[in-house]
Specification:
heterodimer; A: alpha/beta; 9-stranded mixed β-sheet; B: Mth169, Chain: A; 3 strands; elongated; Phosphoribosylformylglycinamidine synthase subunit PurS (chain B)
C-alpha cells in the first residue's frame, strides 16, 4: 500500500494520521504539499487530514478544495482510488464536489471536543470491512463546523443508496436526530461516494489507534484499508 | 469598475449565527427586531468598463468560489 497525506496551509492533523497509518499498517505515508499537481506514482490511498486549512477563511475547506493538488485527487478518485477525508478533510471533500452536501456551524454554536459514539452502518466499504455491521465505536470529535447539511433530495438519495457509513448515536446505541451533538441531518457523521471509494467523516479515527493513549476503535478503519489494498 | 457581491444563506437553511445575533440584539433591548440572518459582502474591483463582461466574471467567481450554492445564494450589484 502507498499512502499520501495532503498538507494544506493550516492543516494540523497530518502528523496524527500519518502516525496512525504507520502504527497500524507499518507504511510510512508521503506528505504531499497542496501546490503539487501530481500524487506520488502508485498512490493507493489519499488522506485529507483535519485542521483549519486557510484559517477556515470564506467557508471551511473552501479554498483548500480549489488547490492544484485537488485535480490530481479528483482524477485518483475517478480511477477508483481510495480517498479518506477526516474533519477538515471531510469539509474539503464536500467543497470540492467529491462528496455531496456541506458542513455548517454546529447547531448550538459551540466547538465540540469530546468522544462521540458512532454506529458503523455498513461494513462492506473499503474503510469498514474490519468492523462488525452495526458496531458502535468511540472516536473523538473536535470541530466547530460538523453539522452535515444537504437538500432533502440529496439526503433521500444518500439514505436510499445506503451511503451513510457512520452515524452519531446515543448511549443506548440508537440514533436520536433531535439530540445529535452538532445538529447533523439524520445524525450523519460520515458518508461515502457512489463507488464507495471516497469516505468523509467528522470524527477522528486516527486518534484512537494506540492503547497507550486510550481506546483503539480507530485501528480497524486503517486495517480495513490496508487489507483491501493487499487483496487488490 | 466596482461591484458588490452579497452571499446569503438560502431561506430553508438554518442560520445558528444569525439566531445568536438576534438573541443578542434582543438582550440589548434593541426594539422591533423580528429576525436576523447573517451573510457575507465582497467588494470587488474589476478591470475594464464592460458591465456585461464584469457580470459574467463575477458570476463565475460566485459559482466557483464565493458562494456554496448547496446552501447559499448570491446577488451582484454594481456600485457607482
Amino acid at each position: 500500500m502507498k499512502a499520501a497525506v495532503l498538507l494544506f496551509p493550516g492543516s494540523n492533523r497530518e502528523g496524527d494520521v500519518a502516525r496512525a497509518i504507520k502504527h497500524v499498517t507499518g507504511v510510512e505515508p508521503a506528505i504531499v504539499w497542496h501546490a503539487e499537481t501530481a500524487l506520488p506514482a502508485g498512490t493507493d490511498l489519499v488522506v485529507l487530514p483535519g485542521g483549519f486549512s486557510y484559517g477556515d477563511y470564506l467557508r471551511c475547506g473552501a479554498i483548500a478544495a480549489r488547490a492544484s493538488i485537488m485535480d490530481a485527487v479528483r482524477a485518483h478518485a475517478a480511477r477508483g482510488g481510495l480517498v479518506l477525508g477526516i474533519c477538515n478533510g471531510f469539509q474539503i471533500l464536500c467543497e470540492s464536489g467529491l462528496l455531496p452536501g456541506v458542513l455548517v456551524r454546529n447547531a448550538r454554536l459551540r466547538f465540540i471536543c469530546r468522544e462521540a459514539l458512532l454506529k458503523v452502518e455498513r461494513n462492506d466499504t473499503p474503510f469498514t470491512r474490519r468492523y462488525g455491521k452495526g458496531a458502535v465505536v468511540r472516536f473523538p470529535v473536535a470541530h466547530g463546523e460538523g453539522n452535515y447539511t444537504a437538500d432533502a433530495e440529496t439526503l433521500a438519495r444518500l439514505e436510499g443508496e445506503g451511503r451513510v457509513v457512520f452515524r452519531y448515536v446515543m448511549a443506548d446505541g440508537k440514533r436520536d436526530d433531535t439530540q445529535v451533538l452538532n445538529g447533523a441531518a439524520n445524525s450523519i457523521a460520515g458518508i461515502v461516494s457512489e463507488k464507495l471509494n471516497v469516505l468523509g467523516l467528522m470524527p477522528h479515527p486516527e486518534n484512537h489507534v494506540d492503547p497507550l493513549v486510550g481506546p483503539t476503535d480507530g485501528r480497524a478503519l486503517f486495517e480495513s484499508i490496508a487489507g483491501m489494498l493487499e487483496k487488490a | 469598475m466596482k461591484a458588490r457581491v452579497l452571499v446569503t444563506l438560502k431561506s430553508a437553511v438554518l442560520d445558528p449565527q444569525g439566531k445568536a445575533i438576534e438573541g443578542a440584539l434582543r438582550s440589548l433591548g434593541v426594539p422591533g427586531v423580528a429576525s436576523v440572518r447573517q451573510g457575507k459582502v465582497f467588494d470587488v474591483e474589476l478591470d475594464g468598463g464592460d458591465k456585461a463582461k464584469a457580470e459574467a466574471t463575477l458570476k463565475e467567481a460566485c459559482e466557483k468560489l464565493l458562494a456554496n450554492t448547496v446552501i447559499e445564494t448570491y446577488r451582484i450589484e454594481f456600485v457607482g
